[in-house]
Amino acid sequence: MADSIPLNPVRKSSKRIGNYSSARLSRFSLEDEPSNLDEMPLMMSEEGFENDESDYQTLPRARVGQRHRGLGWFLLGGWKVLCSSCCDCLAHICWRKKELKARTVWLGCPEKCEEKYPKNAIKNQKYNIITFVPGVLYQQFKFFLNLYFLVVACSQFVPSLKIGYLYTYWAPLGFVLAVTMVREAVDEARRYQRDKEMNSQLYSKLTVRGKIQVKSSDIQVGDLIIVDKNQRIPADMIFLRTSEKTGACFIRTDQLDGETDWKLKVAVCCTQRLPAVGDLFSISAYVYAQRPQLDIHSFEGNFTRDDTDPQIHESLSIENTLWASTVVASGTVIGVVIYTGKETRSVLNTSCAKNKVGLLDLELNRLTKALFLAQVVLSVVMVALQGFVGPWFRNLFRFVVLFSYIIPISLRVNLDMGKSAYGWMITKDKNIPGTVVRTSTIPEELGRLVYLLTDKTGTLTQNEMIFKRLHLGTVSYGTDTMDEIQSHIMQSYAQVTSQPSGGSAGSASSTTPSQKTQPSGPKVRKSVSSRIHEAVKAIALCHNVTPVYESHAAVNGETESAEADQDFSDDNRTYQASSPDEVALVRWTESVGLTLVNRDLTSLQLKTPSAQILSFLILQIFPFTSESKRMGIIVRDESTGDITFYMKGADVAMASIVQYNDWLEEECGNMAREGLRTLVVAKKCLSEEQYQDFENRYNQAKLSIHDRALKVAAVVESLEREMELLCLTGVEDQLQADVRPTLELLRNAGIKIWMLTGDKLETATCIAKSSHLVSRNQDIHVFKPVSNRGEAHLELNAFRRKHDCALVISGDSLEVCLRYYEHELVELACQCPAVVCCRCSPTQKAQIVCLLQQHTDNRTCAIGDGGNDVSMIQAADCGIGIEGKEGKQASLAADFSITQFKHIGRLLMVHGRNSYKRSAALGQFVMHRGMIISTMQAVFSSIFFFASVPLYQGFLMVGYATIYTMFPVFSLVLDQDVKPEMALLYPELYKDLTKGRSLSFKTFLIWVLISIYQGGILMYGALVLFESEFVHVVAISFTALILTELLMVALTVRTWHWLMVVAEFFSLGCYLASLAFLNEYFDLSFITTWPFLWKVSAITLVSCLPLYIIKYLKRKFSPPSYSKLSS
Known about the structure:
Elements: H1 20-26, H2 34-37, H3 47-50, H4 60-67, H5 71-94, E1 103-106, H6 132-141, H7 144-155, H8 167-199, E2 202-207, E3 210-215, E4 224-227, E5 236-242, E6 248-252, H9 254-257, E7 262-266, H10 269-272, E8 285-289, E9 301-305, E10 312-316, E11 321-322, E12 327-328, E13 333-339, H11 345-348, H12 359-386, H13 392-402, H14 410-428, E14 436-437, E15 449-454, E16 461-471, E17 476-477, H15 482-498, H16 500-515, H17 528-541, E18 546-549, E19 573-576, H18 580-591, E20 595-599, E21 603-607, E22 613-622, E23 630-637, E24 643-649, H19 651-654, H20 664-673, E25 676-686, H21 688-703, H22 708-719, E26 724-735, H23 739-748, E27 752-756, H24 761-770, E28 779-782, H25 789-800, E29 805-810, H26 811-830, E30 834-838, H27 842-856, E31 859-864, H28 870-875, E32 878-882, H29 889-893, E33 896-898, H30 903-943, H31 955-961, H32 966-970, H33 980-985, H34 990-994, H35 1001-1025, H36 1031-1052, H37 1058-1074, H38 1084-1087, H39 1090-1117, H40 1121-1126
Parallel strand pairs: 15-27, 15-31, 27-30, 28-29, 29-30, 31-32, 32-33
Antiparallel strand pairs: 1-8, 2-3, 2-4, 4-13, 5-11, 5-13, 6-7, 6-12, 8-9, 9-10, 14-33, 16-17, 16-26, 18-19, 20-21, 21-22, 22-23, 23-24, 24-25, 25-26
Helix pairs in contact: 6-8, 12-13, 12-30, 14-30, 15-16, 15-17, 17-18, 20-24, 21-22, 25-26, 26-27, 30-35, 30-36, 35-36, 35-39, 36-39
């Protein structure tokens, strides 16, 4: 969310540190008075105060966690923590990272490099040929379920433990591993292919002997590389030369920072001025570059040419850099490589996303552990009833293997296939077109969410700026009165053209009062017309916007952007800037008659309504930063020679810079309440001497290596005093389609919505109201700015007394409260119906997500559209990205990608509900399928003198888990309890899902009892009814078992689908057809007789009919909430 106006006040607190994690420790060397705190009424935990200032992190919870580390902790998972920390230590020792250092890079001389730098190869593969098999096996067997199957299958190689055929154990396990390995191998092959394509891209490298072609992976630090238009930049470079006459070019950075706007980059003056490209080798020059770091928005370095007397020094900043993975948008560029491979900004900023595991998978894992415990207990009981005779330990293990079907291996397969099916259904839903499932392992999470954390700009709003208001202090203009401004502009420029000399005199006289501010003399009041003229002119000049004209003729080489091939008409002009706000302002000045027609590094031209061209020289430009929250420009009017310093920025930054006034603060508040983003515009006229003095100091500061940013800021601040306030602008960011009904739907579903934004408090509050995030009749508690422990304590107490009100808090206050009262703040905030956090950094957004996960144990979802939302999306249990104007970075990093915010309603209410309900039913049914056959085995063994002999062998066991029951059981992924329209009409149904009642120990216990009842009936029934031969027990019980499973699927289904019916009959047909080939298990002459048919029918009826009756009675006397609605 590239908010251009936001962020925190920095002027008065230049010592502040932007990054949150470091700020928590360093920002507060506070002047708290603990003695005074004792007199306050403590309504919250006093334990926080017992701590020393430095020990603020050991809050009550953390201490409790430390206290309970005993044997229990070790057995219940502590061993994992210890093992992982030991592995981390070993890895750290073995692969100790090389310390990154600053460097001196000689142009075109890689051999002069002092150190060996990493190879410029992109490597996204997880494994290599040697590590592939061990790596994949480790990823599979680190889960309890798969490790258990491996141990059981391996036990079959021991003759004394062997039960049945080897393939009954190894075939399913081998199938699961084969599918996983093939999938991983395909992914790995794709990664390798992508890497190979990127690494073998050819680039032109300049050498003493001319141009040669090199692969991207062979580029070294110090190489001079030529990059053409629309080509990817292969490594981090310093921009030396361009084919553009202006000495600057545009690059596209959407793959690096998620922003779709083009960025203007400037070539080093010394090398750009050289007559020909080959002259780069005739000079002796080097670049000093700071050590590689994460920040893509800053760079400090120097360019030095040492073969002249005196040496030429030029300071290098972010505008002279070309980062890897960006794309050249205009002209051809030549750069010297300074960082390669792992040291490039793009690779340093690539964080490994955590491997997300769904809550349902964790719950099923817990249940399988409980089943394993039951299996061991059952085996011990069997051995105990034998009387621990003979080699009882071997018998115990044989029983464990015998009952291994309690935990079916098909559970993992069915669930994974189910997840893929849900993902396919989501992508094929015509009501939410363009939705992409990027993480197929967590679709059930969409049905369990309690907290939704959303970005504002581009997510709730369109990031499409429209100019709405111009305020001059005494008069305000809205959209309906813009024609008045237009007439004033036409009038003032008509006077200028009719009196050529009067124009400059007028502008000079209009600025004299501000220059000669003498307390005794009265101020000359300007006319409204001249004030409008000055304000519009300031807005048209003070920006970073460049007009771009598309080339009609495809011309290569140095003359690519020759003016002859370009159409300079108004229709062919588009504006490029790093902020949509600036483009909106420049478009507005065009609409009222003052048009920006041309801009390069040193000048810009405006066109008046009478088609006259006004030329201005750009002397200095101070770009917008989130710290300064303002941007400035110093221009010289070519017609008059006047030097003017224009500045615009956020009201918090500008209030102390402009001359005293009594309206700015009030009007900013009024505009913010309307949801407008405000900018304050000011100017200052400079004399030639003032400017020369400033320029000397500024250039000196720019060349310093230590604390360059602070020294430069100090010099610029010397100019920012007593500036003349010109106007206040208001730009509106429109809401996305159907944001209000969607937020209302989510709120009714019991989902708590938190808005995290970098925008200012007033704008954020206003958007929260206009989007109905906070309902009209709801109170809003604005958390006052706090800077120390005492203030935080009092403010939290004040907030605690409020009930059912929305909370609005700024990033600064949040930091202070989290430092001392983390637990208390989160506890209070979680009780609020809505929370708005404004002026949040990307790191803070991710931290808020983690706090909610730690303190509430509820599932969180983060949704955003920009590069600054990626950390929040990756930290959340479920991340949703919107493909917005800020690029695709958030959408590519997310688990689910949608095209509009309104689609989240259907994604959660319909697909989230279905995925969770279906997986819960499928998981429990597959377990039931394993438990019923294990119960039959237990009954069989107990009757036959506790012998560890299998009841069914060979193909019967494989067929039971696959072809005979697989399709009907898997068809449960098509089941739905509520129609999509009903789920969207009654979002309250979603609240039930978050309680996790579809898969709990209670529902699991019911399935266990059903399995024990049915397994007992099937086995005892078959034993009671079997005749002389044992083979009949197998025939009767197995057939009844298959029929029972098919009927149980029918009992579980809530809404029939034609594929379910097909699956039922297909499975039954497969079983009946296979009877002809199962001679070794069944007596064919017996199974075609009437006694066989009635015995099987009777047993099946007794096992299933009571359950059908219970289900009917339950639905009649205690129906679930959804069935009341559907009836």
